[in-house]
Specification:
The complex is a heterodimer of chains A (549) and B (76). With 549 residues, chain A is α+β, with helices and mostly antiparallel strands. In chain A, 36% of the residues lie in helices and 23% in strands. In chain A, the strands form seven sheets. In chain A, strands 2, 3, 4, 5 and 10 form a five-stranded mixed sheet that branches. Chain A has a five-stranded antiparallel sheet with strand order 12-11-21-20-19, with helices on both faces. The longest helix of chain A has 33 residues, at 2-34. The N and C termini of chain A lie far apart (129 Å). Classes of the chains: A alpha+beta (549), B mainly alpha (76).
């Protein structure tokens, strides 16, 4: 009896263990086969993490290595509204520390339909740290890089700016975006419950962005900008532009514009002010273009610098009568005097000898009507006459009916200063540039001698720099009127000069848009040229003409 | 066998320690980079020539130098 009972108990126990084993086996199959993927993902999520390794954006440096645009660490503060226990108290605390309107933060934090909201993108690290110390639940932090322009307004038109996501949006920041932007890396690690790294599963290192060195000199740039600011204020002008160029290399040492803006505050600046006028805007050059006609006439062997002409104060071209600006009687003038005294009648006389086809060829040869190829985005080609009327041969040689960029004009004069060889202008120091001969060295020398006379006895005497010989040309042109024809009150005054004239080191161009009180290039723009050139000569320690170098 | 087991455990502990150390160094590196960027930014700001000349004018009353005069000395 007791043996039978005992066997029964053993069988019951066996069944119980068999069922328990079956249940355990079933559970194991359930966990390891059916739910394996989900549980694996959950486990990995708990102890594995992939961290983005952000790549720093490269800095933009001036020619001396001074930083013009750099990356600075900032902390982005975010929140998961679902984890925030008391949205109002959190908003008040975060708003006080981050100096943000608490009501705005509350609206974000109270919206529990979202799992992620930004409280402050790229906040000041000190404020972010102060907020972190409050240990508010649902608030997170991660480091980001913020683009900073330490020199504020200096070269802001050239540098452009980068947006919140650190991608270039304008200027060189946009043009050089690929070089400046690095490649982010990733690191996958296994962590212990305390967050310490136990094992690195994979590592893809970040590739930092490259630094870019410019040809600009921050000191010359800052000075050019302050001279332009004074010029704009003095003449109540709408805008002004200056370009300082090394004629031997095409290096742009300064490219300034007014009104200026602080690149750190670009979202609050109007598009109109952000434009780099030296390459994106055109103007009618007026008399500064006369050098092209004279160069053409000399190069074609039609005249020499001493060839004399008897010139009336007016000239009839088709249906138009074009006047001299500075005289009202007939005079004999040499070709050299035509340029130095900026004679409209003399230049048109030379253009008529040259003829339409050759004049067009010479204008193109000096680079007008096409982009210079400068390494800056948004450069425009300028405008050449699409249709030649009977009077075009009278207006074009004196710089009307044609629109050029300040950059084109500066590089054309740089070619004359460089013995007739044109160099493509450049802003990035390492960039190889193209060059080509525009005029012979003999003609270039003749033109330089004529341009020296402009400053010694002609219209550009205000551009004189004590101790140095300056060669240059003034320009004054009425602006086209929106209703047709030319304005009688709105002008562009300009001066482009080369210094020292005997061994050219600098070409400086200044344009002043809509000056009031005076309109002449020799009165409005030449003094600005003088200030910029005098400072640059002293700063670069360029000895005067005739000094042993 | 026991020695081999002890060696494997010791090796794993060493790897663990190195990983923790590497993690700390990575964080330290990131921190130092941020500080370096901050210092570079301050340096660039302070070295800005426009700021220097403005301070020189306002605080020290300095004026831009007059034109440099060059003396041409020729040996007799």
């Amino acid at each position: 009896m007791s043996a039978r009972l005992s066997n029964r108990r053993i069988r019951l126990l066996l069944v119980f263990f068999a069922l328990a084993f079956l249940a355990a086996f079933g559970r194991a199959v359930w966990l390891q086969a059916v739910h394996a993927q989900g549980l694996d993902r959950l486990a990995r999520g708990q102890h594995q993490s992939t961290i983005d390794l952000p790549a720093a954006r490269g800095s933009i440096l001036d020619r001396n290595g001074v930083e013009l645009a750099i990356g600075k660490q900032a902390i982005t503060v975010y929140a998961n509204p679902r984890h925030v226990a008391d949205p109002r108290a959190t908003a008040i605390a975060a708003g006080r520390v981050l100096r943000i309107d608490a009501d705005r933060l509350y609206t974000k934090l109270a919206d529990r339909s979202r799992g992620f909201v930004y409280l402050a993108r790229k906040a000041d690290p000190k404020r972010a740290e102060a907020l972190r110390s409050l240990e508010l639940t649902g608030i997170g932090f991660y480091p980001e890089e913020r683009r900073v322009y330490p020199q504020g307004t200096v070269a802001s038109h050239v540098l452009g700016f980068a947006g919140l996501d650190n991608r270039g949006l304008a200027g060189l920041e946009l043009a050089l975006d690929r070089r400046l932007t690095g490649r982010s890396g990733r690191r996958t690690v296994v962590r212990d419950p305390f967050g310490r790294t136990l094992k690195v599963l994979s590592l893809e290192p970040a590739v930092e962005g490259h630094n870019v060195r410019l040809t600009l000199d921050n000191t010359l740039q800052a000075n050019a900008e302050s001279v332009l600011l004074r010029t704009v204020r003095r003449w109540g002008a709408k805008a002004a532009t200056a370009v300082v160029l090394d004629p031997k290399t095409g290096d742009i040492l300064a490219m300034a514009a007014q009104p200026g803006f602080d690149a750190n505050r670009f979202p609050r600046t109007s598009r109109d002010v952000q434009r780099n006028r030296a390459v994106t805007d055109t103007y009618e050059p007026g008399s500064t273009l006369k050098v092209v006609t004279v160069a053409g006439a000399l190069s074609e062997g039609l005249v020499t610098p001493s060839t004399q002409f008897s010139l009336a104060p007016t000239i009839q071209v088709a249906d138009r009568v074009i006047h001299e600006a500075h005289r009202d009687s007939t005079e004999r003038m040499s070709v050299a005097q035509i340029l130095s005294r900026s004679s409209n009648v003399g230049t048109i006389t030379l253009a008529e000898q040259l003829g339409r086809e050759r004049l067009e060829r010479w204008i193109a040869r000096f680079g007008f009507g096409r982009k210079t190829g400068i390494d800056y985005p948004g450069e425009i080609s300028g405008i050449l006459p699409s249709y030649w009327s009977g009077s075009t041969i009278g207006t074009l040689p004196i710089g009307h009916g044609i629109a050029v960029t300040p950059m084109q004009m500066a590089s054309a004069y740089a070619a004359v200063a460089n013995g007739g060889v044109w160099h493509q202008p450049r802003l990035v120091a390492s960039r190889p540039t193209k060059s080509r001969r525009v005029v012979s060295s003999r003609v270039a020398d003749q033109l330089m001698a004529m341009l020296e006379d402009v400053v010694i006895e002609g219209t550009g005497q205000e551009a004189e720099v004590e101790g140095y010989q300056v060669a240059g040309k003034t320009g004054t042109a009425a602006k086209p009127d929106p209703s047709g024809g030319y304005s009688s009150s709105r002008y562009v005054a300009s001066f482009v000069g080369v210094v020292p004239a005997s061994t050219p080191r600098l070409v400086v161009l200044v344009t002043v848009d809509e000056p009031r009180g005076a309109i002449w290039g020799g009165v409005v723009a030449a003094p600005a040229f003088q200030e910029i050139a005098r400072f640059a000569l002293q700063y670069l320690e360029i000895p005067p003409d005739g000094s042993p170098s | 066998m026991g020695v081999l087991l002890a060696g494997v455990v010791a090796l794993n502990v060493a790897v663990l320690r190195l990983n923790i150390q590497s993690d700390q160094l990575t964080e330290e590196r990131a921190q130092l980079r941020a500080e370096s960027a901050e210092l570079s930014s301050q340096l660039a700001l302070r070295a800005a020539s426009a700021r220097t000349s403005s301070l020189a004018r306002r605080q020290l009353g300095l004026q831009p130098a007059a034109t440099t005069r060059y003396l041409d000395l020729r040996p007799r």
